[in-house]
Amino acid sequence: MNPTDAEGGITVALGVTYEGRDPDLLSRLLPNVAYVEITLETIAEVKDGKIVLSDEIMSEFKNMGNAAKIIVHGVSLSIGSHDSWGVTYLHLLDKFMEQVDVAWHSEHLGYTKVDGEHLGIMLALPKTEQALDLVCERVHRIQERYRIPFLLENIVHVIPDFDGDYDDAEFLNQLSRRTGCGLILDVYNLECDAHNHGFDIRNFLDRLDARSIKEVHMARGVEHNGFLLDVHSQLPSNSTIHLAKDVVLSAQDSVQVVVYEFMPEAVPGLGHTAIAEELARMRRFFSGLSHASR
pTM score, two decimals? Predict the structure, then answer.
């Protein structure tokens, strides 16, 4: 739960991605955030023919102390693949949790491989009963394995959705009800779907049980040939920040953190100062929310 003040105000924590090897950037991030999100695949390397976590980057996280809580956000579990899922990723997660305290961990509600072959992209699941059963069974196995909260995130629909048994909101509602799994709501992904496929964000939010949302993601990409791409390369737009605010206010205090995501490759173009200043602005914005501001 987030703390609320006597006048009904909401205090939600701010988080940010960090992928290591940039101590100056980290020193500018930490004063503005309470959580740091790490993607294990980006800190992994091949050593003696095996995929392992970078000792250099792991030292950074071990030395962070109480400056921020750590949350892990995977990209290669492929929880929706029909035949198998990411054993290598689970091995990395095991090794990470042996060395660093993790507040919770999460993945994307999609799949990255079919018949054991990597697609080179992440695709959204069909919203069918069969797919729901598959994901719920795997969520239960993850919850039994790690015994800390596990969240799943909505992803961009690269291609139009397959006709299924549920719409997007009800699929997430059923997933959360059947497993107790929390949700990450990426509001920029919603904006991409609205731009690319005419997705009705307001109807989706009205139908979604917002009490399951524990984390909100913000990012910003680029438009290419009229298609809005989910690449985390820009500072978030005002529309994204205000959409995140609406979600936080509707979630009845369930949202614990709002995370700004950017790729390491975007840092030179954005600059350390601009990132830090944007985080400071967002921290002030989200610390001043109240139910009356809806």
Answer: 0.95
